[in-house]
Amino acid sequence: MLGIVAAVLFFISFLINAADISTNDVFTSTNFMLLGLMCLALHVAGIGSGWAARGRRR
Which domain of life is it from (predicted)? Predict the structure, then answer.
């Protein structure tokens, strides 16, 4: 799920950068890119994947 969120944040960052939209200091393309990288790192680390690492049943 976090991988999809990261892709959406990267797309928003691309649109802000490509369209040269002037935003305030909070909603810059760099901030969206950094949020996307954070979500991608959490996804790769296995957080928010929906699968729990539990012991096997015997």
Answer: Bacteria
The pLDDT score that the predictor gives to residue 51 is 61
Predicted confidence (pLDDT) per residue in 11-54, tens digit: 988 888 888 778 787 778 888 888 889 889 888 888 876 665 56
Q: Residue by residue, what is the 3-state secondary structure of 5-41?
A: HHHHHHHHHHHHHHCCCCCCCCCCHHHHHHHHHHHHH
What is the number of domains present in the chain?
A: 1
Q: Is residue 20 part of a domain?
A: yes
User: Considering the domain boundaries, does residue 33 fall inside one?
Assistant: yes
> Which pTM value belongs to this model?
0.70
Contact 37, 6 (CB under 8 A): yes
Instruction: Write out the residue range of the structural domain in which residue 16 sits.
Output: 2-45
Q: How many CB atoms lie within 10 A of CB 2?
A: 19
